[in-house]
Design a protein that fits this description.
Glutaredoxin; globular; 12% strand; 4 strands; alpha+beta
Amino acid sequence: MIMNNKTEQLQGKPIVFYDGTCGFCQASVQLVLKHNKGRNLNFAALQSGVLENLVPLSQRPDPLPDSVVFYEQGRLFTESDAVLRIARHLNFPFPVLYYFRFIPLSFRNFLYRFIARHRYKIAGQTEACMLPSPEERARFVA
C-alpha cells in the first residue's frame, strides 16, 4: 500500500467506489450526487486504484466486489451494507432505506447480487467513466 499526501487526505472522507464502466453504476452515482444533502460523499471508480492505495490488503475483501464498495470511517462496506450506508447520506426519503438493515444480510445480499449480476443488461456498459460537471468533479478523487 502506497501512502501519499492525497491518500492521507482521503483517510477520513466517505468514498463511494463504483464500476466505472457500468451504466447502472454511473446512473447510481448521478442519483447520489443529486441527493447527497451534505455534499460530503466522494467518488472513485474501482478501476482507479484509489481503493488499493487507501485500504491495506488485509482489510479488503477477497475477491473485491466489482459493483459498489463504500469506505467510511476507515472501514469498507460491500454489497447491500454499502448501499444502505450510502443512503444515510442522502436527502429524504432515501435515509429510510437504512432501516432495511434489520432484514437478514443473506437475503439483502441475495437481492443485491441479483441486481449486480444483471446490471449490464439493465443499463449497458461503457468504455469510459461519465464526465462530471466542474462542481461535481471536485468530489471525484480519481
